[in-house]
Design a protein that fits this description.
Shape: elongated
Number of strands: 7
Order of helices and strands: HEEEEEEE
Radius of gyration: 26 Å
Structural class: alpha+beta
Helix content: 10-25%
Length: 152
């Protein structure tokens, strides 16, 4: 015996199915993951950046945990700061396999606009505890100068 579902019930189920797909898709995407069964590529690594200015320099800090500092290149040219590097996937021991992996890996490139008034020869970069700090000193001619008042 065959039962017939009313048309409105079928469309209601179809709408529910679509909504559930969107909810679970949003859930996985919010975690930076692909929904199970999808063929999406792994998440690319984009290190977050914070920039602040002091009286004598512009300081750029970039989170690069797990990145070997020897794979990072920093170049300041014209009005841009270029930072490139590579975050490698951890090698597993023999006979081990990944069950779940949310780590973003791969090559990264950040290009940040800079004010033109910095001393390119004085740029320094240091890495400590997974944070790359790049210090771009301001040119001497734009630094604030204390002017002595002459008394007559």
């Amino acid at each position: 015996m065959r039962t017939h579902m009313p048309t409105h019930a079928t469309s209601d189920l179809s709408r529910l199915h679509g909504r559930l797909d969107r909810v679970f898709g949003d859930f996985w995407n919010g975690l930076g993951l692909s929904p199970p069964g999808s063929a999406a590529p792994p998440v690319a690594y984009v290190p977050p950046v914070a920039v602040h200015e002091t009286m004598d320099a512009l300081v750029v800090r970039m989170e690069v945990p797990g990145v070997d500092p020897s794979t990072i290149e920093v170049a300041a040219s014209g009005d841009e700061l270029h930072v490139t590097g590579r975050k490698l996937r951890e090698e597993l021991p023999e006979k081990a396999k990944w069950v779940h992996d949310e780590f973003a890996v791969g090559e990264f490139r950040r290009v940040l606009p800079l004010p033109s008034a910095f001393d390119a020869d004085g740029v320094t970069a240091t890495a400590k505890f997974g944070v790359l700090t790049i210090r771009l000193p301001k040119r001497a001619e734009i630094l604030p100068k204390q002017i002595e008042i002459q008394v007559e």
